[in-house]
Amino acid sequence: MQSGDNPSSTYVLLSACTTARSRRSRQIISKLLSGEVGLRQSSPNLGVIRSGYGDPAVVGDTYTIVIYPVQVDRVLLEFIAQQFKRVFNAKVLLSGQLPLGEILRHFDEEREQIRADRLLEALREKLGVTPHQRVLVIIEGDGYVEGLNFVFGVAAEGWGGVVFTKRLYPEFYGGMPNENLLRVRLFKEVLHELGHSYGLTHCTNNCVMRFSNSVFDVDSKSAFYCPRCIRELSILAPGLLRI
Fold first, then answer.
1. DSSP per position, 1-34
2. CATH classification of 23-38+68-236, choosing from 3.90.76.10, 1.25.10.10, 2.30.110.10, 3.40.390.10?
């Protein structure tokens, strides 16, 4: 796979995961890997948006993360929302599925991939946010940008990010289905994109903000921000992290 990383770009290509130094981050990782936190547990604090496409339906200065899925299983989405409640001091809202037509407008039939940066720009125009809100779009599909064979995701500072799940499935590489592995990979990727959306750049530590060329890079990293990125995030978004 080709890779490239331009820190000045509006669109920050996805990395993977990080070594968690704090006691809380180690607990999160342990629960993810052990399966103690199950996909079929629903968070009692999970907000659900009924207003649909184009309206985050949130007002005020509270940190808010709105998850918009595209053809993604509801159980997996609830797992991600549940983990966000453990990591962030934020209201987590799970929207209904985004219209597939919006995604298909940016689908390259020859490559059978979605042009990620163009989709990101289109979604930014349709899904407005306040300074304390972030949007996370999770798509059951494959994305790319010019110059790269694929990306796990893209992000825009001050808005949010888009994550593609296709290459996170073990089956994509000829492996057996593994629910725990899938959810850990996805958790790493969404944390990475949200980190970019709050102003974090790629990190050289064994950190969730480290760039990933492949799923092997994703698997080799732990599932949280490193101490340096935690300090930066505490300045960029005071009070966001539950540590």
1. ------TTSSSPPPB--B---SHHHHHHHHHHHH
2. 3.40.390.10
